[in-house]
Amino acid sequence: MKLITAMFHLIAICASAQTNVVTSNLQSLQGMIEERDFLARLRVTYTPDFWVSSNDVLYLQPKDIEPEMALAAFTKATRGYTVLTNKADRTALIDKYFAASGVDENYQQMIRHPKKLSVKFVRFSSYKMMQSMENGDALIQNDEGTIRYIYGLGRAADDKEYANAELIKVGLKTYTTTIGGTKTVDAYLSVSLNNEEKEALAKLSASFSWRVSDLTHQINTVAAQQKTIIKNK
Question: Could you give the dihedral angle defined by the CA atoms of residues 127, 192, 7 and 30, in that order, rounded to the nearest 10 degrees?
Answer without folding.
Answer: -160
